[in-house]
Structures are given as structure tokens and as C-alpha cells.
Amino acid sequence: MCIQELILNIGNFTYLLFLLFPVLGAGIKYVDAAFDEEVFNKNKAVIIAPFIGVLWAFTMILHPMAATILLAVILGVLIKGKIDNVAHAIGLGSIIIFYVILWYLFDGVVIYFMPLFFLAAAGVLDEIGNDVISYNSEFSHNHSFGFQFFKYFFGRRHFMKVALIYLFIVAGYPLYFFVAFLFFDEAYMMVALYSQSKKADTM
User: Fold this and answer.
1) How far apart are CA 6 and CA 134, in angstroms?
2) pTM, full prediction
3) pLDDT tens-digit series, residues 11-31
4) Contact, 60 vs 66, CB < 8 A?
């Protein structure tokens, strides 16, 4: 019996997703801001990274769809080379170690592979679009609707959300996973906004 089936036999803990997903979103943005923008303390980011990693792996064991979404996020940033600092590496290592332990103790973690590839591809496109608007000055100066919509859409990485909605409509996955992922994204953006304001105060 895999760990997810064992947990579901004990009780339905999917309500925890609404708490865990935003914590994960806020946590990875904290690490991003600490190293990429040097807003937060890097030592604190390194300290919290393994805890975020273990919490990430724990969230994956609650349900196969949670595992699929979170692994798709990991693959998206890995393919785009966004694991680019020691804290990210520690966090990823913690996820892998925790996953290997679960695999050894139980029968692993169930993942929906076709949705995984679909969501990971959407995640890569989100990262590509985000890079385009970050490094192309045209998006700062051109105020046409097309440019501004592109800036909004990929600035908030909405492609993966659209892919999730498509999966829920076509395959009938529970909608609360989409809500949980929205919480993930909103928590990520709240920390991003806070880091921007904190950075502006120091200039």
C-alpha cells in the first residue's frame, strides 16, 4: 500500500492543502528574494530551506494530485535552470531524501504521469514568458493592451493555472486542488510585493 492510500485510510487530510500550499508558495519566494534580490537574510533562507523541502514532500504524500502539481512545479523550474542558489539546492535535496525514505518504507508516492507532463510543460512556458517580460524593456514602455496582457498573464504565471482548469474540466479532478494552487500563487505574490516594498524602502 502506498503512503497516500495509507493516509486516506486513516482520514481525509486534503483540507490541509489550503494551509500547506500557501506556506510553500511564501517559502520559496522568501528564498528567491533573499538570493536574487538580496532583500531577506540569506542565512535564514538557508535555514528554512530544508523545512520547506520536507513540508513540500509531506504535502505530496497527502494526495496523488497534490504530488503531481508540486512535482510539475519542480520540473518547470529545474528545466529552466531556476534552482540556482544553495538554499534552493538544499530544499530540493530535502524533498528527494524525504521521498526516497517514503519509497523505502512504503510503496512510494502515486503521481499522475500524463497530467504531470502537461503541467510541467505549462510551467516551463510560464517561466519562459516570465523571463521575456523581465528582460525585454518593451514591456515596460509599451502600454498597448496586448503587451500589458502578456505582462500580466506571465507575470502571474497563469499558464499553469489554465492547464489545471483544463485538466479539471476534462479529467474531473477535484476543484479544490486548483483553489489550493491559487493560494500557493497568492502567497508567493504577497511575499514578492512585500520584498519589493522592503527593497524600495532601502533605496
Assistant:
1) 44
2) 0.87
3) 566 778 899 999 999 999 999
4) yes
Whole-number Å distance between alpha carbons of 67 and 73:
10
Show Cβ contacts of residue 190 under 8 Å, excluding neighbours closer than 6 positions. 26
Nearest Cα residue to 168 out of 181, 157, 156: 181
Q: Which of 198, 203, 201 is nearest to 41 (CA)?
A: 198
CA distances from 10 to 18, 22, 134 (A): 19, 24, 46
**Domains in the chain, number:** 1
The CA-to-CA distance between both ends of the chain, in Å, stands at 55
What dihedral angle (degrees, nearest 10) is formed by the CA atoms of 107, 59, 119, 144? -170
Domain boundaries, position 98: 3-202
Neighbours of 169 (CB within 10 A): 10
pLDDT digits (tens, 9 = 90+) for 150-184: 777 877 788 899 999 999 898 888 888 999 999 99
Going by C-alpha positions, the residue among 56, 26, 57, 24 that lies closest to residue 40 is 26
186: its cell numbers: 497568492
Q: What is the DSSP code (8-state) at residue 36?
A: I
